[in-house]
Design goal:
The complex is a heterodimer of chains A (326) and B (183).
Chain A: H1 7-16, H2 25-33, H3 39-52, H4 54-59, H5 71-76, E1 80-86, E2 92-98, H6 102-113, H7 119-129, E3 138-145, E4 149-150, E5 154-156, E6 159-162, H8 165-172, E7 187-197, H9 210-223, E8 228-233, E9 235-247, E10 254-261, E11 264-268, E12 278-282, E13 285-289, E14 294-300, E15 303-311, H10 315-324
Parallel strand pairs in A: 2-11
Antiparallel strand pairs in A: 1-2, 3-4, 3-5, 3-8, 6-7, 7-9, 9-10, 10-15, 12-13, 13-14, 14-15
Helix pairs in contact in A: 3-6
Chain B: H1 3-6, H2 14-36, H3 39-56, H4 63-84, H5 92-104, H6 111-119, H7 123-134, H8 139-146, H9 150-173
Helix pairs in contact in B: 2-3, 2-4, 3-4, 4-8, 6-9, 7-9
The chains are: A alpha+beta (326), B mainly alpha (183).
């Protein structure tokens, strides 16, 4: 590996480096002609909506998915469920499948933007607010680019990162399980703990749609001649999930573990048509396995936790990790 | 859609936008690639930049600044999102795998060191550095793009330079390079 000798070296390199450029004019024109102006934007918005109102999306009930609470999520992505894992109580706890083509579900995404907050959701938030820590804060941020249009809507600090297993344990041990084993040579490089948050509708108006809410803030920001809207919200005490990332001796070797409280639905990108999740059993533990990950579940008291492991390691090692979780 | 947004659609025609794409897509892609170091993500952002420009812009003056502003905003979004590492993103592992596999193709003998140098910068510092040195824009033009005052940008540029110089010195002193995480 060569080394840069000076700042100028870096700049010269950046200015002259070979860029893997592909002409995308035709793709853009095609999308313009097709009138698909905001596919990515809509998708991004949906991701944001998914992130900040995960429970909202995941708890809605329709009929397409096997897990009925996730049916709207599946429907919104024109998803097709290919495999499922049933616990010993007869409940479907994990399901995996494939999302449809973006164009297929674009209209459904637009429907998502018009989602109205439900009375049930509001009650749920109120209940959880009672458990929040006094100093917990979460922020909402809407940059207004040139005051022409809102460009973003993000919750900051909805996730906290830790860099040792001890710190992670101290912050989640009351809530969920952790692995007791990882293969030799792997070390935790980061964990992220994800929290529930206060209702971000401010002021709360039961019949206000998400998009209307954003537009209202945007208009207010514009009127106030500010560059962005910013407000801190209270984060709730409840952990809704966490992730662990381990790095192996080889830089590219990673193990990702995702823990989620409650049932899990995973939809892979379209283009993975051959995805066939299968149910397997090892040492009395049930797994759902697809070409990317292994999934299993745990009960801590009455609380269901679903776990996903994504790693380029031997299957036996996956099983050992999963069996060490507790 | 509100009346406010409806009014913005559209003063450009398809021939206009085609010319704009031809003239600027390489520079926008290069900026995105050097911000994100990912071909796939840069292609996505580049497309989105022109679609957004077409959808939202009634202005025909200051085209490059406007395009860079959109690109900057999208890149910052992505970098921020990467940092959050969405646990619940539906296809996180698939995307990560695809990106790592594709990006590795473009690595060369400088890649890890460059990555290390760039990672010492904040997202804004990186953006200022690239817009100034690679895109060749003036601080006045960058201030229009980033909506920041020129003196603040000059400070950010100096800070970025110092950080990179410091990183290079440190790397030179350390014989044992532990490597850089895949971006």
């Amino acid at each position: 590996m060569k080394e840069f000798q000076s700042f100028e070296d870096v700049i010269n390199y950046l200015a002259t480096e070979e860029i893997p450029f592909t002409d995308c004019k035709q793709d853009i024109m095609k999308r313009l002609n097709a009138g698909i102006l905001s596919k990515k934007n809509t998708y991004r918005k949906l991701c944001i909506i998914c992130a900040i109102s995960f429970t909202l999306i995941i708890s809605a009930a329709f009929t397409l998915g096997y897990i009925k609470e996730h049916a709207e999520f599946v429907k919104a992505h024109a998803g097709e469920i290919r495999g499922k894992l049933v616990d010993d109580r007869g409940n479907i706890v994990i399901q995996a499948g494939v999302a449809g083509e973006a164009e297929e579900y674009e209209s459904r995404m637009l429907e998502q933007e018009q989602r109205k907050i439900s009375v049930e959701k509001f009650d749920y938030i109120k209940k959880n607010l009672e458990d929040k820590l006094p100093d917990d804060k979460i922020a909402i941020f809407i940059p207004v680019k040139g005051l022409d249009a809102f460009t973003d809507f993000s919750i900051l600090n909805w996730c906290e990162y830790y860099y040792t297993i001890e710190d992670t344990r101290n912050n989640i041990s009351h809530y969920g399980p952790l692995p007791g084993y990882v293969p030799d040579g792997f070390a935790l490089i980061e964990s992220g703990v994800y929290y529930e948050y206060e209702n971000y509708y401010e002021p709360y108006e039961e019949k206000m749609a998400y998009k209307e809410f954003l537009m209202k803030l945007f208009e207010k920001t514009k009127k106030d001649q500010k560059d962005y809207y910013y407000k801190e919200y209270n984060r709730l005490n409840e952990v809704r999930g966490y992730s662990l990332e381990y790095k192996g001796n080889d830089e590219a070797q990673r193990i990702y573990l995702y823990f989620k409280k409650g049932k899990t639905t995973v939809l892979h990108d379209s283009g993975t048509e051959k995805l066939v999740p299968e149910t397997i059993e090892h040492n009395g533990r049930k797994y759902l396995k697809d070409e990317f990950s292994y999934y299993s579940y745990f009960y801590i008291g009455d609380d269901l936790w679903t776990v996903r492991i994504t790693a380029g390691i031997e299957e036996d090692e996956i099983f050992r990790i999963m069996e060490s979780i507790g | 859609m509100s009346a406010h947004l409806q009014r913005q659609v559209i003063y450009l025609n398809l021939a206009d936008i085609e010319t704009i794409i031809e003239n600027y897509q390489f520079n926008i892609f290069k900026y995105c690639f050097q911000m994100l170091r990912s071909k796939e993500a840069s292609e996505d952002v580049t497309q989105e930049v022109f679609l957004t420009y077409y959808r939202l812009s009634g202005k025909k003056e200051n085209v490059p600044q406007y395009l860079y502003a959109i690109a900057h905003s999208r890149c910052i979004d992505i970098l921020r999102r990467e940092k959050r590492k969405h646990l619940f993103a539906k296809n996180f592992s698939y995307e990560a795998y695809e990106k790592a596999a594709e990006d590795s193709f473009f690595r060369n003998e400088y890649s890890y060191e460059l990555q290390a140098a760039l990672e010492t910068l904040t997202d804004y510092e990186r953006s200022v550095l690239l817009l100034k040195t690679v895109s060749g824009l003036s601080f006045r033009e960058i201030s229009e793009i980033l909506k920041k005052k020129e003196p603040a940008l000059r400070k950010q540029f100096q800070r970025a330079k110092l950080k990179i110089e410091k990183k290079i010195k440190r790397e030179g002193a350390e014989s044992n390079d532990e490597g850089i995480p895949v971006f």
